[in-house]
Amino acid sequence: MKTVWVILLSLLLLGCNNDKRDINATFQNHCKEESSESLDRALCNSVKYREAVVAEYHWFQQEADTERLFYRVFGAVVIVLSIAIPVLSRATFKHKEVLVTIASLSVAIGTSFSAFFNWGEAWGQYRSAEYAYGAEIRRWDIAVLQLVQNNDDDHIKIEQLNKHTQHLLNQAHAINMQANTRFFEMNGKNIQEYLNFNDVKPIE
Predict the structure, then answer these.
(1) Which region, left, alpha or beta, applies to residue 199 given φ > 0 means left and ψ of -120 to 50 means alpha?
(2) Contact 144/9 with Cβ under 8 angstroms?
(3) 3-state secondary structure of 77
(4) Using CA atoms, how far apart are residues 137 and 175, in angstroms rounded to an integer?
C-alpha cells in the first residue's frame, strides 16, 4: 500500500493544481477498492477534501482569467478610440459626426464600466487568491508524501494526516473569506466613487 500511495501522491504533486483527469481517475479507482487498512481509508478521505480545495482553486483561476480579459479588452478599446477620435474629427467624409459620436459614447461607456467594475483590481485579487490556494495545495502534497514514506506507526500517520488536512481546509477558508471581504469592500468603494463622480446622491 505504501508504494502505491507514494506513486499516486507523486503523480498528484507533479500534476499539482492542474486538472489531470487521468490522475484523478487513478485515485478514484484505487479508493473504490475495499481496504481494511485504516491509513488507506484516511488517505482516500483526505484526497477528497483536497479535491474540494482544488475546485475552489480552479474557480479563482477562471475568475481571474475573466477579469483579465475584460480589463484588457475594454482598456484596449478605450485607448484605440481615444486616439482615433481626434483623427476622425479632422477628417472629411460622410457621416463623420455620427461616427465620432459613437466613438465618444463608446469611450465614455468603456471608461465608466472599467471604473465601476474595476476589472484590473479584481483580476489582481482573484489571482492572488489563486496563488495562495496553489501554495497551500502544494504544501499539503509535499507533507503527505513525506508522511507516507516515513516509518511511523499508522495511527501516528493518520493523526498527522488529519492535522495537515485540517490545516489545508482552514487555510482555504481563510483565503476565501479574505477574498470575499476585499471583493465587497472594493465594490462598495467603486459604487461610492461612481455616485460621487456622477453627482448622484443615494436615497436615504
Answers:
(1) left
(2) yes
(3) helix
(4) 12
Which residue, among 20, 45, 21, 12, has the nearest Cα to 145 in the 3D structure?
A: 12
Contact 68, 155 (CB under 8 A): no
Residue 189 domain flag: yes
What cell numbers appear for 107 in the block?
469611450
Residue with cell 488529519: 162
**Is position 107 within any domain?**
no
Burial zone of 175 (CB within 10 Å; 0-12 exposed, 13-18 middle, 19+ buried): buried
Residue 80 falls inside a structural domain: no
Angle between helices 38-90 and 2-15 (to 10 degrees): 10
Tell me the pLDDT tens digit for each residue of 48-84.
888 889 899 999 999 999 999 999 999 999 999 999 9
Tell me: pLDDT of 141 over 60: yes
Number of domains in the chain: 1
Residue 9 is assigned to a structural domain of this protein: yes
User: Under 8 Å CB-to-CB from 84, ≥6 apart: which residues?
Assistant: 103
Cell 506513486 found at = 7
Give the cell for residue 33.
477498492
